[in-house]
Write a structure and sequence with these properties.
Layout: H1 2-13, H2 17-26, H3 29-42, E1 50-54, H4 57-73, E2 79-83, H5 86-89, E3 99-102, H6 108-118, E4 122-126, H7 132-140, E5 144-150, H8 164-170, E6 175-178, H9 181-188, E7 195-196, H10 201-210, H11 215-228, E8 232-239, H12 241-257, E9 259-265, H13 271-280, E10 298-300, H14 307-310, E11 316-319, H15 331-334, E12 340-342, H16 350-358, E13 361-363, H17 367-378, H18 383-400, H19 403-421
Length: 422
């Protein structure tokens, strides 16, 4: 922890933006936590705090449905949401938590101070957030600690020879909840009991799909729908240059096949977006006034916050990242029953493997194979295959939903046990 703090502080002084946010964002946390506690008391929330902790924005996608259900399950208890990374803290303003902040540095002094200010009765850690001082000191002070939506792989820390120290802290948890049976099996090799409750990201995309869109989002969707007209649409989400090359290869086939494409770049402000627009003559939604010209076969959605709802307008999806660090969120497309094509970087993404085995996702090893897959789905002959993939996606979502409710039920069961013991 001392080395980590030194590294982040040095990077902050050197001008690194995320390091600066991380360092400065933690200053004054004691005052902010005390003020949050006072506000909760004033609002009549006098019951013990619930603390939910995520690493970053990605883990918040798992935490969000849990937070919503906690609010309904225990409305009298205030909720603290903390992040380790600035990409989570600085991007999350409105949620079911009473206070959002950075997690203090994981030192004994900080955690003891944290416990003395808020004294949370439950701390819920999302996926991999195993901070030893937090677990040890809060557990000693009587806090019930829950690890949820976690995953463990054989041969990957802490399921290794060197992972004994973290595994010792896992044994201190009140509930140890995992996404799948494979993770539970890995834990059982070390005498740890993993309770399979699933992945709440599925509930997150389901919640999003049924929520009423804001006026701005609905207006954007209506404009895209008008532009789409009677054509079928490919939605290319979180596209990188590799996916763009596939779209460029498809461009000449779109109109004659009765298709169009909506491209949502991974980096909406990247220089390559301007190049894509120039190469293809596709309008950019951020620079084109509505209505969008229907003479174009493509549209570039270079605005943040619309992709996850725009999938509902599509007939099939291409999800980017397959030739980068890893494929992005395929669940956002699958929840609307879209067959999905992706590149090969899917190692460790169990939901992609599962959807592929179900017949909902086509994992392509090369860009040429990706282009062929999409071209096949665009033909009349490929329509039956596309429909089967769509039904497989919806069926898989239906079978695997409900993780957030199971997680809350497992946590609430420990409340009853504690109350009866007391």
């Amino acid at each position: 922890m001392a080395v980590l703090r030194l590294f982040i502080r040095s990077a902050s002084f050197a001008g690194h933006p995320k390091a600066r946010l991380s360092w400065r964002g933690r200053k004054g946390w004691e005052r902010r936590f005390s003020e949050a506690n006072s506000r909760a008391q004033e609002q009549g929330k006098t019951q013990p705090w619930i603390h939910v902790h995520c690493a970053s924005l990605g883990e918040y996608e798992q935490a969000a449905p849990i937070l919503e259900r906690l609010r309904k399950k225990a409305p009298e208890r205030p909720v603290l949401l903390t992040f380790f990374s600035p990409s989570g803290r600085e991007s999350t303003d409105e949620c079911a938590a009473d206070h959002i902040d950075y997690l203090p540095w994981d030192t004994p002094r900080n955690i003891r101070e944290f416990a003395s200010i808020l004294n949370p009765k439950d701390t819920i850690l999302i996926k991999y957030e195993l901070w030893p001082a937090l677990i040890r000191i809060l557990s000693d002070s009587g806090t019930r600690i829950h690890l949820v939506a976690s995953r463990f792989d054989r041969g990957r820390h802490p399921a290794t020879v060197l992972g004994f120290w973290i595994r010792r802290h896992l044994s201190m948890l009140t509930t140890l909840q995992v996404q799948d049976a494979g993770s539970a099996e890995v834990l059982s090799n070390y005498g740890l009991n993993g309770q399979v409750t699933g992945d709440p990201r599925i509930d997150r995309v389901l919640d999003t799909s049924i929520q009423a869109a804001s006026e701005s989002v609905q207006a954007k969707l209506s404009a895209i729908q008008t532009w789409k007209g009677e054509r079928k649409m490919l939605v290319a989400g979180s596209a990188w240059p590799s996916e763009w090359r596939t779209i460029a290869a498809l461009n000449s086939k779109l109109e004659e096949s009765g298709w169009c494409v909506l491209v949502a770049p991974h980096e909406v402000r990247g220089k390559h977006v301007s190049v894509w627009a120039a190469e293809s003559s596709f309008p950019r939604t951020s620079q084109q006034s509505e209505p969008y010209p229907t003479s174009t076969s493509g549209l570039i959605l270079d605005e943040v916050g619309f992709l996850k709802t725009a999938y509902q307008l599509g007939n099939m999806a291409l999800v980017g990242g397959g030739w980068e660090a890893g494929v992005h969120n395929t669940l956002e497309a699958a929840v609307y029953g879209l067959p999905v094509a992706v590149g090969p970087a899917v190692s460790g993404y169990r939901e992609i493997q599962a959807l592929s085995e179900a017949g909902a996702i086509d994992i392509c090893q090369t860009e040429t194979q990706l282009t062929s897959c999409l071209l096949n789905w665009m033909t009349l002959e490929g329509e039956h295959k596309r429909e089967n993939a769509a039904q497989a996606a919806l069926a898989w979502i239906e079978v695997n939903k409900g993780a957030a409710d199971r997680i809350i039920a497992a946590i609430a069961a420990t409340w009853s046990i504690s109350e009866s013991t007391e």
